[in-house]
What we know:
Elements: H1 12-54, H2 78-88, H3 90-115, E1 130-135, H4 141-152, E2 156-161, H5 164-171, E3 178-182, H6 188-202, E4 213-219, H7 237-265, E5 268-274, H8 286-305, E6 314-319, H9 329-337, H10 344-348, H11 363-374, E7 380-384, H12 388-397, H13 400-420, H14 443-446
Parallel strand pairs: 1-2, 1-4, 2-3, 4-5, 5-6, 6-7
Helix pairs in contact: 6-7, 7-8
Amino acid sequence: MPGYNEEPLGSIEDLLSYLSAIESTVEGEVSKIADSIDAVTDRISASLRSAIGESTWFPDLKPPPSAPAPIIARPMGYLEASRDWVSRHRAVTAAVVCFIGTGAYMIWRQRRANRAKRRARRAKNGQRTEVVILAGPPSAPLTRSLSLDLERRGFIVYIPVSSLWEERLIQAESKADIHPLHLDITSPSSVTSTVRKFTAVLDPSDPPRYPRRLASLIILPQTPAPPQVASITDLSADFWSGAFTTHLLSPFTLLQALLPLLQSHKASILFLTPTNTTSLSPPMHGLENMVAGGMNNYISTLRKELTSSEGTKVVQLKLGAFDDGSDRDAMKMAVALRHDTRTSSEAISPPVTEQREVRGSPLRELHLELFDAIVGKREGVVYVGRGSRMYDYLGKVVPEGLVGWMLGLRKKREEAKKKENEDGKVPSAQGSPGWESVEPMSSEEST
C-alpha cells in the first residue's frame, strides 16, 4: 500500500497519524473508482439511448398524454344569463331600451302635465277677467259639464240661448259666472244688437271693474240623435233643411257675427267634433256624415283664412269615446248594419240584441285639453278620447272595401245573435247616443 511504513510505531500520536493517512488514501481511491464507474455507466446509457432512438423496430416507450380533465360548467344565475343575452343581442336590446325609455318619458310628461293645476288668469283684486262663449245646446249634458268645469277654473262662461226655456235652464244652475247670451240667428238686427251689448260687457265703464278679455269661442256641433239614423231615401227634404240649419247654419252664423270681436281680442276658436263613427262613413248615417264632412271642410278653410290674423287660432278637438256612456258608436254601428234586413221604420228605432259596455277615456282628459286649447297651448287638430286617433287614421288610410268587409263581419255576428233570441223582441235604445249620461266632475277631480 503506498505510504506504508514498516518501521515500528513509536507512540500513540504516530499511530493516529498513520491511521489518518490510511483513511485519506482509501477515500481518494474509492472516489476515483466511483468516478470511473459513473463514466462507464454514462457511456453505456448513451449508447443504449442512441441505439434505441435510431432503431425502427423497437416500440415507442413514451407514455400517451393523459386526457384533460372534464370542465363542468357552473349554472348561470338570472343576472349572468341576462348579461350574456344582452351581449349577444345588442341591437335588440338598444331598440327595447329606446322604446321603453321613450314611453316612460311620455307617460311621465303626461302625468306631470295632468297634475299641474289649470286656472284662468285674474285681476290683481281677484276679479275674473277671462270670458269664454260655449256655443252648444244648453240642455246637452256635455254643455253643462264643460260650463261647470270652466266656471270652476276661473272663467266667465256665456252660453247662447234662443228661448226663455233655455235661459231658465242655465239660471237653474245658480252659478254667478255662467250667463245666458240671447242670440237669435234668424234676425240679423238682433245678432248685431247682441254683439254690441256683449262688447260693452267686456269693456265696462265702471272704474272698479277691470276690462274683461274674450278668451275663446267653443262650438259644440249637435250630434244627430238615434231617430235620425236612417237611410238617405227615408229622409225628406224638410228634414234635410232643418238639419242643415241646426247643425251647420247656426254655428256658422254665430261665428260670423262674433269673428270681428274674436280677432280684436285675439281669442281662439275651438271646434269639438265627434270622430269615431264619422271617420268610417258607415251606412245609415248620411246626416251625421254630411254634418261631419261639412264641419271639417269649414274648419280647414277658416284656419287657412285666419293664418294672417295674429293671436286668433283655430283648433279642432276630435272626440273619441269617453266613460259614463258618452259614446255609443258600437250601438249605432249595429243599427246601420241591420238596416238591410229590416224595414225603414224598424231601422229608425235602434234594436240591439246585446249591448257591450264601451270603455272610454275619463272625461277629465277633455277638460284638460280644452283648457290648454283656450290658453294657446294646443294648435291644429287635437285628438281626445279613446279611439279618436285610430278611427281617424283608419278612415284616411284603410281602403273603403276593407272597411266594408269589416262591417260585413260585424253584420254576420249581429245576425247570429238575432237568431239566438227566441222571443224575437229586442228593447230599443232610448235617448241620444251622444252625451246623455255625462255628469259634472267634482272639484277635486277637475284640478
